Structure formats: C-alpha cells, structure tokens
Predict the 3D structure of the following.
Amino acid sequence: MKKLTYLILLMIIQINGVSVYDRDFKNTRVGGYMDTEWISEGDVNTFRAHRFIIQYGAKLSPRVKFNSEIEYEYGGYVTNEDDSNNTQEGQIKIEQAWVDYQINDIFTLRSGIVLVPVGQLNIYHDSDMRDFTARPLVNYYIIPTTWMDTGVGGHGSIELSDYEITYEAYVINGFNDANLYSTSKGTRNLRPNFKSDTNQSKAISARIGLIPNINTKFGISTYQGSSDQSLVAFDAQYSLGALKLKGEAARYSDGFDNDANGFNIEGKFNIAPYFNLNSQLNLLARYETVDLQANENASGEITRTSFGFNFRPVPLLVYKLEYSLNNTQGQTDNDNTLMASVAVGF
Amino acid sequence: MGGALYASPTIKQYSTLEGAFQKVFPNTDFKKIDITLSKKEKNQIESALQMALPTQNVELYRFETMNKPVGFGMVTNHIGKHYPITFFVATNTNIEIKDVVVLIYREDYGSDVRKRRFLKQFKGKTIDDPIQVNYDITSISGATLSSYAIANGVREVLTIIEQKI
C-alpha cells in the first residue's frame, strides 16, 4: 500500500512537471535581525519586543539579485486588539522587496519595494548596525524611517582613483499628498501604501554620495512629490582611529505651509583596544533637535541629548545602554529616558 | 589556493595568485613553504589573536631577487558573513605589511573591501599594531563583517610569519 502511495505521488509530480521542489535553492540566502528593548521613562517601565526581521535574498545569475526584508513589529499583531481586548500596536510589513539587474559596471536597475534614499539611516536602519537604541529624532519626525515605497530606478558608483561617487535614484508612488503632516508625528502619516498611488502622480527621490577617502563620507539627497512636498537631507560621517562621528540634517516643506527641520550629530569612541579586547566597547554621545513647526517660534521644538555605551562581543551582537535628556518646547515636566536593548543580526 | 575548497553560489575572482605575486613582488622568484602548525602552536597563535584559525596548514611564500629575500606572503581565508574571503597578504623582510590583495570574494555584499582605499590602511602595519576595526582600521559601510575578516587575516599572517620565518 505504501509503495502504491509513493508511486501515485511520483506520478503526480511527473505529470505536473517542474514543481517548486525541483527548484535549486542553493542560491538563496536567509538572514535577518531582532531587537529587544527595555525602557524607563516617567511611569513607563517595560520590556518591548520591538522588531523581528527576516531577510530572504537570492542570486539568480551573476547580474541578477533579489532581496527582501519582512518585519514583525511588536510580535506582529495586526488586528490592533488581541483576545483579551488589549490594544496591540504590532504589524507585519515588507520593508524591502526588490530585484536588481546589473546592466553594466556603473548602473544597476532596481525595481520593487525600495528604501527611499533620503539620508543614510533609512538605508542602514538595521538595529544591530545602529549604536543607540532610539533612532534619531530627525529620522523619526522628518525622514519617516523606515520609509519604503514602490517604484523603479537605479543605483551604482563611479570610481576615480581612490574617490568614489555613488548614486541612487527612483521614481516612486510618493507620499500621500493630503495635508496629513502632523505636529506630533511629523511626516510619518504621509508614508504610502503599496496598493496604489493616492494621487496618480509620481514622485522622485535620489541621493548622491561622495567618498573622498576611507575616513570620510558625504551625501546629499532629496524627495520631490505632489502638493510641493519636498525633503532635502545632508549626511556625513568621519572616522579618526577609535573615534567615529556622524550626522544627518533634513528639511521638510509642503504646499500646506508645513515646514520642519532638524539635525543630529553622534559620536562614538571605541575603548576596547585600551583593555586589549578584540571586540568593541563604545562610549556614545548624541545631540539632536527637530523643529516640527519651523514657521512658528513658540512651539514645535524637541531636543534630546543622549549618553551611553554599547558592547559588541562579536560584530553582529550588540548590548546597548543610553540615558536621554528630553526637552519639548512648551512642556515643563520633561521626563528623561533610560533605555537598554540587545540587537542581533544573523 | 585553499579557498577553492569552499562552495558558494557567488564566486568572483578578482585576481589569480600569480597576478597578486606580480603586482606586489614584480620580477621576483618565489619559493613555496608548506608548514603544518602543531596543535600547541595553533593554540598559542589562536590565544594571541583571540580567534580561531581556519586550519593547521599554512602556505607561506618567500620572494627573492638574485637569491636575496625581498619579502614574504601568505594566502589566507576568513569568513565574511557566510563564506570565506580568500586573500593574499604580503610583507617586506622587516615583516611590515607591503600589500593585501583580495583574490576571491564569495558573498553577495561587501566586496568593497577589495578597494584600495580600504586595503591601503594595512600598509606598514606590524605585529605590534592593534589592526582592529574601529581603532586603527576603518571599516567599509555595508561591509563591516568583511572588514573584520581582512583585519583578522592580516593579524594572523603577521603572527605566523613572525613565528615561522
């Protein structure tokens, strides 16, 4: 009887021809990252299962590459209400899913769900890559990280001796062009859905980077869409021995008279070699400010100064601790934040 | 080349071993020296480097002009994220790094470590230098693990050449 079942199964497979089981998976990669946070601020004292991300990629040929990133946030509840009527804020979303076709050495065509190339942190947003637990204010309120959109474009680099110029440019659906800018959430509510373009009009986004040497990187980037929605950003980083400095500045404006800007500067100093450790122990400091109502003087400014350290026993595992002094304009009782997290890439 | 043993879907050869020899030590003769480290030697080196060595077998090369040594070299393999990077590390007779050449890269991302602006940081380094990423070596954005792999390999080669030559 068993033999007969196998025979029938074999016949079904033969009749259907090539099935998914016949596909060669040797070119497929699986990776990802996760983070778990602890936050103490005012009355809040909680662990938070923030992100669990799975990345699937495949190299279909030497010139064709697929990559994707699927995020489960806060456990991935999507109903916003669990069985006990507790509100859940989780979500499952695709943060990237694109195919690259390398046309030549300086141009690669990319299409699918792409990370919008404004600033650097939106591209390198992985928790295990970042040194602080909290993402910078400018990358929350002005550049709505993680910000992805559906579209097509290209990227590449041109090398001139040790200099390198990189570029990335896409035509995308763009922000929702209604007046959804919020003085409490900045540009976050403008982020697009993946089903259709809300205004049937395309937007563009591009970044040009300059790498003059191993220690220095600069980038200017922009987004231009309907309703005069505009974002411009500048990013830079500089390394000198154990010291690394980086920062981003961005400005958002639109045709509804909303105007916002902000910047951050972040430094880290690796003290591990002074203790003869072949790992990383970084002292951290960051100053950042955003003005969510730049056309008004009386309100909208948020400033945060953070200090902390992180320990990387191996490059893909980081334990982080930071203390932040928060100041929101017009608010008298600003709670400071103590935050810790562990992030691991795999 | 030891790296040929590793199977990977994405194999890009940036240089042959002979090409690397020509680039770093043009117009010289070379002698291959096969060394098998004893377990004790391997352990000692691993504890000095704070990392595991991929193998006990070492392929050292001695480069000569008119029978006078001009430098040494070694091929090593260190894992980036999933697969090993095969690279050639060369020193002068004072055992200071003369050059590093990436021979084979197998990962989908991070091949920027083969570029001059990254590799020239190693020139002149000796066993007395830390050769640590985010200290005296700046990593390449988007190729952090590969940057660690090259730095680890350079420290490994300097340690072995110091001990075995």
Summary: The CA atoms of residues 118 and 144 of chain B lie 11 Å apart. Chain B is about 25% helix and 30% strand. Residues 1-7 of chain B have pLDDT under 50 and may be disordered.
